[in-house]
Amino acid sequence: MRGHWLKGIGHAGGSIPEAWLAERASVLSRTGFPRRPRIAPGDRLVYYAAGWRRVFAIVEVVAEPTDRVSGSARWPWTVDVEPLLVIPHMENAPPVEAIGVAARSMSQQSHIRLSEEHYSRAVEALAGVAL
Asked: Taking the model in full, what pTM does it have?
């Protein structure tokens, strides 16, 4: 069964830029975690921009988590991903509340599990404005 997750990108004190795609496109091919995530190939990640409190992309995990490619002490575990829906400008991205999740749910978390309903709402919210 496919899992659905809300995955934080950036943090309140170091948010990604408004036009993030030019500077942070790498998150569309790989994303990191502080410890080994319970995420598997086929799972879907809804990207959440912490400082903006908006959801801005949906990606599919395409490889098992690994600690061999990160090079980051803070994010030693990574998964390879492929983009499914992308909002290139934060000003156009829907607020996280549009998918039925409170922003405070992500406090101090790198990712949280989403219900099927919350994931469906994310797809609908992002598809309305995605590339």
From this structure: 0.93
